[in-house]
UniProtKB/TrEMBL annotation:
Membrane-spanning residues: 6-27, 39-58, 64-84, 96-117, 132-153, 165-185, 197-218
Top-rank taxon, per record: Bacteria
Listed name of the protein: Uncharacterized protein
Organism in which the protein naturally occurs: Maricaulis maris (strain MCS10)
Keywords annotated in UniProt: Membrane, Transmembrane, Transmembrane helix
Record's keyword annotation contains Transmembrane: yes
């Protein structure tokens, strides 16, 4: 009974997460709509991530990867949310705790990827080694960025926004993938699933993340047109 209720909660919160994330992503940044949708995205993303993690722990033989994906998604939105609320751009104890957590997740995913690739089928606990490796690389990206931040110190306002953007964006990408081509795809007709069209939202999301990052990092300042990006 508990796994079924958790799964229902996971699906409903994930659906809300995708909708709110899309609005926050496309709305003018800093405006009330963006902030409201971002708050809904944060809460619903944490709900779906943590419920997914619990489901993965309860059913490790079938969904262990979900536990790691949930950890990664929660890490991304929490560190992204935290970054948006910095006033000095200076990291603190929260970032050290987050670094330890994501390093543990990266090590676990890398181990599963190696074990899966060593099997005859290239799969372990229902998933391909490449699936574990992809999540491991995402986790490693966050860990490297955190370690660099902790060594170098405060970020400039522009890089603080970029850090917030790519972390929230990557979490949204994970949610979109889970909904359209992952477990959530079961709500769509089989013909649509087999058409390949459901992979388009993932590609579009990735493209938008890159475009917003480029605009954030390389757009010239209005106050100083000659400023380096």
């Amino acid at each position: 009974m508990l796994p079924e209720l958790l799964t229902l909660f996971h699906v409903l919160s994930g659906t809300l997460c995708v909708g709110a994330g899309g609005i926050a992503f496309l709305a003018p940044k800093g405006r009330p709509v963006h902030r409201a949708a971002g708050t809904v995205f944060l809460v619903s993303m944490l709900a779906t991530a943590l419920s997914g993690a619990v489901i993965g722990v309860l059913e490790p033989a079938r969904l262990l990867i979900t536990a790691f994906a949930g950890l990664l998604a929660a890490y991304l939105v929490l560190t992204g949310w935290r970054t948006a609320r910095w006033r000095t751009g200076r990291p603190g104890g929260f970032e050290w705790v987050a670094l330890v957590a994501i390093l543990a997740g990266t090590a676990g995913l890398a181990t599963l990827a190696v074990l899966a690739l060593q099997t005859e089928t290239g799969r372990l606990l229902g998933f391909a080694g490449e699936d574990y490796a992809m999540l491991a690389m995402m986790s490693a990206l966050g860990a490297v960025a955190d370690l660099t931040l902790l060594i170098r110190g405060p970020l400039s306002p522009r890089h603080r926004i970029a850090r917030h953007l790519w972390r929230m964006g990557l979490a949204f990408f994970i949610a979109v993938g889970s909904f359209f081509t992952g477990p959530g795809a079961r709500v769509f007709p089989e013909a649509l699933r087999e058409s390949g069209l459901l992979s388009l939202p993932e590609g579009l999301t990735a493209l938008l993340i890159l475009l917003f990052l480029v605009r954030t990092l390389f757009k010239r300042s209005r106050r100083d047109p000659g400023a380096a990006s």
